[in-house]
Design goal:
This protein is an all-alpha fold. The chain has nine helices and no strands. The radius of gyration is 19 Å and the shape is globular.
Length: 187
């Protein structure tokens, strides 16, 4: 029964998460609340794992959640659930776009989808930033503003951003550097 639920939850995610892997995050937060398969902290961990491993972020996250839920078969079921809508939709759209690619209606649809994707990705990014850059639990106990911020993580994020802008190396370099920094500074 959980296999069907895994497939269905990720099928819905794959169907409505327009914009790629990060756009799946709002769906994952909702899924964590409704199913209890994983926590918000697990989402932060799975983002780190998914960003550090080869393959599309959304697929890696689906595989991780499925595997965490019921093992290898769960990873396969969740992944298939996530990618099936894309396969179906791409086949249908490719057939339609061949006939209507110059249509004003089609152009307007894409014009509306772009900001929706941007909003979903921004919401996901803010959720990840909240989990990794803030200490909400400590702040709730102490009510000290300085306790709200995870200063080590903020500094690491700023350093990674600045070096990325300056040196423009492959993302794996920054992921590896962040992993080493996490080990050394116990982030």
């Amino acid at each position: 029964m959980i296999c069907l639920q895994l497939f269905w939850e990720f099928f819905k995610t794959g169907l409505f998460a327009v914009g790629g892997g990060l756009a799946t995050l709002p769906f994952l937060y909702d899924m964590s609340i409704s199913t209890g398969w994983f926590t918000a902290q697990d989402i932060a961990d799975l983002i780190a794992v998914s960003e550090s491993t080869p393959g599309p972020l959304g697929v890696n996250m689906a595989t991780y959640v499925g595997f965490k839920s019921i093992g290898l078969f769960g990873g396969v079921v969740a992944t298939l659930g996530l990618i099936c809508p894309s396969i179906i939709i791409i086949i249908l759209i490719s057939k339609i776009l061949d006939k209507f690619k110059d249509s004003a209606v089609v152009q307007k649809v894409f014009y509306g989808l772009r900001p929706a994707s941007t909003g979903l990705i921004a919401a996901a990014g803010l959720g990840v930033a909240k989990l990794s850059l803030l200490h909400l639990d400590v702040f709730e106990e102490t009510h000290q503003v300085l306790d709200l911020f995870n200063w080590k993580s903020i500094l690491l994020a700023v350093v990674i951003y600045a070096t990325l802008k300056k040196f423009k190396k492959h993302p794996i370099v920054y992921i590896a550097a962040a992993a080493v920094a996490g080990i050394l500074f116990q982030l």
